[in-house]
Amino acid sequence: MTSYIQDPAKLITTFHRFLAFVRFHDGDRPLSFVDKNAFLGREENYKSKVSELAQMELNYNAWKKSWIGSGKILECCHRAMSRAGNLVNRNQQTKFKNMINPGHEKYKTDAERVLYDIYKSKPGAQEAAAFSQAKQVFGGNYDTIGYLFFIKDASRFLPVSSGNFERSLASIGIEYPLSGRCGWENYTGFIEIVRYIQAVMQDIIPDVDVRLIDAHSFLWVINEKVFREWKPDTETMAEIETAAENYLTARASGNAVKKSRIMSCITRSAEVAKITKDRAKGVCQLCGRQAPFIDKKGSPYLETHHIIWLSRGGEDSTDNTAALCPNCHTKMHIVDDENDVKKLLNLNKQDNLHWNIW
């Protein structure tokens, strides 16, 4: 999974921008994914409600194998699909209902058996087989099959809208094809990526319980036009950038509490920061003065700054980083002087070629 994470800085910066976007709507209200009076609760928590209501309609724990062929399972699944709302395309909802309707010309005779297998299968090979059977009977549509698994267990599965999530993942530096790839391996790969995102979110906001479906909501929101076109003011932009850089620095230095799931994708940021500081040789690249003090490790204290801010699409690479003293680093975020940006970029063009490892 981690091979898909090309630039964790994009995810981290986008999530901080997401937090600022939510604050913009909620003001001083505590962050919550479930509070119906909060932005995220109003906009996204309906998915949890859909899952709960659909599970009540299914009541699949009560199913018996003898029900296959009786129509009882089909009735349960018809009601559950009627709860889908926008989690399944309307045309796909109609198509599915036709395929589980014995009186319709497009009825699939294997439908009830396949549905029984989905909801009675155990994790692992059985679920993989059930997914494959569902694809054969109902077609390779992620909207439908993803929803059927999501309402089986929302703690392990997710609904999928292929095009939307491809774009969301690409915007945070994760290229993962979904369109035309409906299959168990592709589906579980997508879920594993969302679990990684969930882990990063939980690490950044440890006081808030982040569910798998909340990471799914984050991906949905960042693809919406209202988020993409939102223009935070300069002060908010600086806060977003600083928060992202502080998180990356803490992760790279090992100062954060949790490491295992996330550190494997932050190694590059640590190497970029090290090369950037080594290249500066203890001298601030903006003001030209020596570092203000020596740290506990005996190294000149300078801070790594992304010249083109991560929140503006800048890369986490040695071509786009500079080592600055704390005063100049603060100045870059508060004053945001275009001439300072040009100066740092020109310095990198002059001496960065033999340092650039990427």
Fold and architecture overview:
The protein has 358 residues and is mainly alpha-helical. Among the domains are: 103 residues, no CATH class; 86 residues, DNA Binding (I), subunit A, CATH 1.10.30. It contains 17 helices and 2 strands. A two-stranded antiparallel sheet has the order 1-2. Helix 1 packs across helix 13 and helix 6 runs antiparallel to helix 7. The longest helix is centred in the middle third of the chain and has 21 residues. About 1% of the residues have low confidence.
Characteristic key phrases:
358 residues, 2% strand, 17 helices, DNA Binding (I), subunit A, 2 strands
Main β-sheet, in a few words?
Answer: 2 strands, antiparallel
Helix-and-strand structural type: mainly alpha
Share in β-strands: under 5%
**What form results from the Cα inertia axes?**
elongated
Sequence of secondary-structure elements? HHHHHHHHHHHHHHHEEHH
Write down the Rg. 25 Å
- Strand runs, count: 2
- Work out the helix count: 17
The span between the termini is 20 Å
Please render the helix and strand layout as text.
Blueprint (H helix, E strand, L loop, with lengths): L7 H19 L12 H6 L1 H13 L13 H10 L8 H10 L11 H10 L4 H14 L3 H9 L11 H10 L12 H21 L7 H11 L2 H4 L5 H20 L6 H4 L3 H14 L22 E4 L14 E4 L1 H9 L3 H14 L7
Antiparallel strand pairs: 1-2
Short description:
By secondary structure, the chain is an all-alpha fold. The protein has helices at residues 8-26, 39-44, 46-58, 72-81, 90-99, 111-120, 125-138, 142-150, 162-171, 184-204, 212-222, 225-228, 234-253, 260-263, 267-280, 326-334, 338-351; strands spanning 303-306, 321-324.
